[in-house]
Amino acid sequence: MSKASKSSSKKTSAKKESNVSNFAISATKDEMKARILGHLAKTLARAPEDATKHEWQLATCIAVRDFAWERMLATMDCHHEAQTRRMYYLSLEYLMGRLLNNNLFNTGLVKPIREALSEIGKDMDELLFEESDMGLGNGGLGRLAACFLDSLATLDLPAIGYGINYEFGLFRQSFDKLGHQIESPDNWMRFGNPWQIIRADHSVEVNLYGRVETRFSSTGDSHQEWVDCNTIIGVPWDIPIVGYGAHTVNFLRLWESRASSEFNLSVFNAGGYIEAVREKAVSETISKVLYPNDSTESGKELRLVQQYFFVTCSLKDIIRRFRKSFSSWDNFPEQVTVQLNDTHPAVAVVELMRILIDEERLPWEYAWEICQKVFNYTNHTLLPEALERWSVPLFQKVLPRHLQIIYEINRRFLLDVVDKKWPGDDQKKTALSLIEERQPKMIRMASLSVLGSRFTNGVAALHTELLKTNLFQEFNELYPERFQNKTNGITPRRWLLACNPNLSNLITSKIGDSWITDLDKLHELLAFADDAKFQEEFMSIKIGNKRRLAKVIKDLCDVDVDTNAIFDVQIKRLHEYKRQHLNLLHILVLYHRLLANPQLDISPRVFIFGAKAAPGYTLAKAIIQAINCMATVINNDQRINGKLKVIFLPNYSVSLAEIIIPAADISEQISTAGKEASGTGNMKLALNGALTIGTLDGANVEIMEEVGKDNIFIFGMTVNEVEELRSKGYKPWDYYWANDELRNAIDWLCSGYFCPEEPHAFDSIRYSLLDGGDPFMVLADFDAYCKAHDDIDAAYKNKKKWAKMAIHNTACVGKFSSDRTIREYAEQIWFLKPIRPQCRVMNVGSESMFA
């Protein structure tokens, strides 16, 4: 018997062990049927024969929610009784997607719910699509936060997430006839959210604006008081976060802003209705929309107010919970650890200092010691323009007391630390100061985050090294022990188990289902990588997923695509550094080659894009329009025999990603080396058997190490080569004149051929690439990118080789589970231990129900 056969036999016996017995929840088909019908009647007041598809979906969500809330109460009761240390995750974004499907898998209720709905005459898969994606996030940072919440609960780690309960998401994206991005409100909560519950009794007051006065105590000691403030109310809403197996159900607490006084009756009686409700309208704007346009001063002000609003609400909630069991601030760092997800919550450092010194009257040194023990900071970007800076005048207007505290933190730091290490070195002081001396002066929130935290971490090995050597070089010289790497990860529950059930079932049939909570077990699939039958099954599932995506493409874009073609996918936020325009130029080269020779022997290609451009990001929107206009021409050109199709799917979302990712053959991860901190889309696509074409950037470096150089297509300059070329003086015009295909692609794009109604629509792209200096070196990497695509074409023609490479990708990316990432955070940053609640009936009246 061969090694592979022995391994197969061993794994087949392993598969008989099921995780079903490990679920904390069990329910029969009949029980779920009764719950669904009961909620339809008693919660929604609807007879079955009159209920809409949306109402059936709501009733199903509520039936599952009952179990989630019950387990959430058990979890809170356990944590309260154990007086456990908790981690609090502060993030301005959570890209949650839909929750029903994910919660069904994590609770183990997929089978009984499906059977119950079938008996009622309803298709569960149809109902799943009735749920709205939660509009609580935008890109990778928000999706990472969502994956982390899943892993925290799955690993039985006591944690609470905090954010804002945005009424409107980023925006709903559509395209007009000329390919322009059209933005419309994303009112994701128009039908309510069945997963949320309001905790009005834990509302908090938030002060803004006002001024600072110096006041004296009866003993003549002075202190600062923040007075004449505007006051608003933060109202919390909780969403249960169900870990796999549903033993632990943590929660995400989201804050909604409300006016401190609903209505000015005297003004109303005087005839001023608009003025009577004005305060209410202004106050509630704070939680109205994700990412207000901050290209205006009013937009910047609202953004700062949003950040402070959710931070102070969260800290007051954390302190309230702490004081239920402890009275001494000595215990605070032992019970509380707070993770700042990027610089958006950085003002938390200053707010905790304000609470400790102004309200609790603790000595400065003691308060600062507490802050530095409690906070930790994750950096997500190396781009200088993405590092938050707030103008001093704006801070003075919105948070006058906090500005004083920042200046005092900075004074003490420069005097007591920097000047002692580098006496008289003004350059070091300039580099390390929290205040950037420009007009106007700016507050460096990233520097504040590093200084006020116990640990700072990057999100990929390369990214962390660049943080230490470039971005925070001086801080690393001062505090080398504070910097760590925590390579990002993704939850395998959503990004394989739930979104690709046929592949999940195939994997489980070979190696058992323990991979669901131990992704490294996927290595056992390597025993089947050369097995012809397994390869056939693996690729058959891929084709099935491509057919599903093809139907979505037809529905959304009215374009027919060949499912035997290479599905080449680039799905991520539209930004120059992610280089969607590099992809665009290569497509034009392929199109030109096919026009010159329609019989050209290349594998058919379907290039699939999904991305939103920020409303004020003009160049990104031009790139979207260019792809759309190019798609219209190419997709309708009969001369190329359907060998090339270009698809830009509108309104990219988590739910759309769950359809695209399982169908992808190629994963485009083509950012300029040194610009992408990590990436998580690269991990999701590789896990589902897509082969990466990418630069040695972010987590691509580690993916290559895991899957092997023969199972990934790496191209382009390294970080060192990028810096070397830049230092020598990068001249994009030289590349333009040296490469005929590149020159033709740029000239053709900007000739007006693809958008005759707006012949100059893409001049900004040409300017950026040539006269604008090509800041992300698209032209320098272009030739290597095209050659890598030629290698992809050759590999795809060898079906057996391609199948083996795809299997290798799925089998070898276990490292990129968010479970591994969270274990590392828990052990090395948070010092957090798991605690599993017992399965028992809850005392509904217990105090911890409202924790």
Task: Based on the model shown, name its key terms.
about 850 residues; disordered C terminus; alpha/beta; disordered N terminus; 6-stranded parallel beta sheet
Give the DSSP E fraction (strand runs of 2 or more residues). 5-15%
Tell me the radius of gyration. Answer: 28 Å
- The coarse overall form would be globular
Q: What is the tally of beta strands?
A: 23
- SS-derived structural category: alpha/beta
Mean pLDDT: 93
What about the largest sheet? Answer: 10 strands, mixed
pLDDT < 50 runs, ≥5 residues: 1-20, 841-851
End-to-end Cα distance: 58 Å
Question: What is the percent of helical residues?
Answer: 40-55%
The tally of helices reads 34
Give the topology, please.
Elements (H helix, E strand, L loop, with lengths): L2 H13 L13 H14 L10 H30 L3 E5 L9 H8 L2 H11 L3 H5 L11 H15 L4 E6 L7 E4 L5 E4 L12 E2 L5 E5 L2 E6 L5 E6 L2 E13 L6 E11 L5 H5 L3 H12 L12 H27 L8 H4 E6 L5 H13 L4 H11 E4 L10 E3 H7 L1 H22 L4 H7 L2 E2 L5 E3 H7 L3 E4 L2 H11 L1 H6 L4 E3 L6 H7 L2 H11 L20 H26 L8 E6 L8 H17 L8 E6 L7 H18 L8 E5 L5 H10 L2 E4 L11 H7 L3 E4 L5 H8 L5 E2 L4 H10 L3 H7 L1 H10 L13 H7 L8 H20 L1 H13 L6 H13 L21
Parallel strand pairs: 1-2, 1-11, 2-10, 11-12, 12-16, 16-17, 18-19, 18-21, 19-20, 21-22, 22-23
Antiparallel strand pairs: 3-4, 5-9, 6-9, 7-8, 9-10, 13-15, 14-15
Helix pairs in contact: 1-21, 2-3, 2-5, 3-4, 4-20, 7-34, 10-12, 12-13, 12-15, 14-15, 22-25, 22-33, 23-24, 23-30, 23-32
Descriptive account of the structure:
The chain is α/β, with parallel strands linked by helices and 851 residues long. Helix content is 48%, strand content 13%. It is built from 34 helices and 23 strands.
